[in-house]
Amino acid sequence: MRFTFSAFAIAAAALGAAQTFSNPSSIAVPASGTSGPATPSSIAVSGITDPVVSVTVDLLGLTHTFPDDLDILLVNPSGQGAIIMSDAGSSFDIDGVDLSFDDSSANVLPDAAILTSGTYMPANYGGSDVWTATTPAPPAGPYGTTLSSLLSGNVNGNWWLFIEDDAAADVGVFAGGWRLNFTTQPVPEPASMLALGAGALGLLARRRRKH
């Protein structure tokens, strides 16, 4: 039974680990006036050494009087960008909505209906979004359409969130800031792989003895 326990423990450890990084500072949209960019917001990611298999994004406490105005671009430390939300939610006022973005979600971000808290796949309904020059400046396109498109390089470093309000007269805020959630896949140590193999051989030997 000792081998069996070790094998299960090693297999469970190899399933993946979650690491979360956050910036809880509120983000006014736009930074001033009623149209234009928010001040770019960053999250410093560090200490990730195992391969990353997925990343999700949480945007917290969104209040806005015309969400369709919002275009949101996420940029990784290598300067690659992906549009995670653009021109969604129509004209319906929202207050304190938490939006999570996950490539694997089956939920479609509403285009012409009210936004509600939940987890959605990224969506861009605009097609020709333009980001105002800020400091730092957003990268030039073309941009990705999935979060996985941002995982091709080193994930450690500053991740940036660029938010544009593309029409006048309405304003909003992300009162709770935002979060990045990484899932990594540990690379098994040679000793762990040997122990796992030994456990499997032990189980096989016991089964043969029973027969």
Task: Describe this entry's structure for a reader.
The protein is 16% helix and 36% strand. By secondary structure, the chain is α+β, with helices and mostly antiparallel strands. It has one domain: Jelly Rolls, CATH 2.60.120.260. Strands 1, 2, 5, 8, 9 and 12 form a 6-stranded mixed β-sheet that branches. The model is unreliable at 1-13 and 192-196 (pLDDT under 50).
CATH domain topology: Jelly Rolls
Question: What is the count of distinct domains?
Answer: 1
Number of helices: 2
Taking all Cα atoms into account, the compactness measure Rg is 22 Å
Percentage of residues in helical conformation: 10-25%
Class computed from helices, strands and strand pairing: alpha+beta
Largest sheet, in brief, is: 6 strands, mixed
- CATH architecture grouping: Sandwich
Report the CATH superfamily: Galactose-binding domain-like
Name of the CATH first level: Mainly Beta
Query: How many β-strand runs?
Result: 12
Mean pLDDT: 87
Runs in which pLDDT lies below 50 for 5 or more consecutive residues are: 1-13, 192-196
Our estimate of the beta-strand percent is 35-45%
Task: Tell me, briefly, the overall form.
Answer: globular
**How far do the termini sit from each other?**
18 Å
Order of helices and strands, N to C?
A: HEEEEEEEEEEEEH
